[in-house]
Design goal:
Binding site for phosphate: 85, 123-125
Number of helices: 5
Number of strands: 9
Distance between the termini: 36 Å
Order of helices and strands: EEEEHHEHEEHEEH
CATH topology: Ribosomal Protein S5, domain 2
Strand order of the largest sheet: 1-2-3-5-4
CATH superfamily: GHMP Kinase, N-terminal domain
Oligomer: single chain
GO biological process, one term: rRNA 3'-end processing
EC number: 2.7.7.56
Keywords: Nucleotidyltransferase, RNA-binding, rRNA processing, Transferase, tRNA processing, tRNA-binding
Number of domains: 1
Radius of gyration: 18 Å
Strand content: 25-35%
Pfam families: RNase_PH, RNase_PH_C
CATH class: Alpha Beta
Shape: globular
Structural class: alpha+beta
Length: 236
């Protein structure tokens, strides 16, 4: 039995509320159970120096956790004092979102997606990617409405979910009690067409077989399908 009482293939309740902030071109608050992340997207007219004159757009991300997002207060991370974990997560979010973007269609502009964890209960990077895509979608909608882009640069939705082996059982969408004790922990980032962007799997307390990995991939497919349905409902 999972600590939450969920079935092994059952997601936590998902909600995505859009238009959370006044000034950002796209914003949402995504809740995956007790993990809550505020995602905002900002459109900038320029691109990083290495892309100037290329005609290609760029999507990047920043990630952070508020001091009381967890059960004890954490110190705020200054921009130049980010932990290795924070840097790794925001790079993951950025490259995940870029995988669903036609950068030629986006044109020579940058969209920055900020993901701020208000409350953490496992799966914050996955919630950030899923909510980040919604914020990105809303920002791109504004570009299209204004006629600043000719064709839709978002070629496919992007979403992510965690899966792992807890108490010997493959389970979908780990919350913190499961994540902290899982024998195997994995994060799965997928496109809407089923193609994989990234899989992060590691043996935390025990190794795993190929059959178990395939089971986790099947669970991830199910979870991502539910997340993408929530995304589409949010941006409809």
């Amino acid at each position: 039995m999972r600590p939450s009482g969920r079935n092994v293939d059952e997601m936590r309740p998902i909600s995505i509320e859009t238009g959370i902030t006044k000034h950002a071109e796209g914003s949402c608050l995504i809740k995956c159970g007790d993990t809550h992340v505020l995602c905002t997207a900002t459109i900038d007219p320029g691109v990083p120096r290495f892309l100037k004159g290329s005609g290609l757009g760029w999507v990047t991300a920043e990630y952070g956790m508020l001091p009381r997002a967890t059960n004890t207060r954490m110190r705020r991370e200054a921009k130049n004092g980010q932990s290795g974990r924070t840097q790794e997560i925001q790079r993951l979010i950025g490259r995940s979102l870029r995988a669903g973007v036609d950068r030629v269609a986006l044109g020579e502009r940058q969209i920055t997606v900020d993901c701020d964890v208000i409350q953490a209960d496992g799966g914050t990077r996955c919630a950030s990617i899923t909510g980040g895509w919604v914020a990105l979608r809303l920002a791109v909608n504004k570009l299209m409405k204004a006629g600043d882009v000719i064709s839709d640069p978002l070629v496919d939705p992007v979403a992510a979910v965690s899966c792992g082996i807890y108490a010997g059982q493959p389970v979908l969408d780990l919350d913190y009690p499961e994540d902290s004790e899982a024998g195997v922990d994995g994060n799965f980032v997928l496109l809407g067409n089923g193609q994989m962007i990234e899989v992060q799997m590691s043996a935390e307390g025990s190794t795993y077989s190929r059959d178990q990995m395939n089971t986790l991939l099947d669970l991830a497919d199910k979870g991502v399908a539910e997340l993408m349905a929530a995304q589409q409902a949010a941006v409809a």
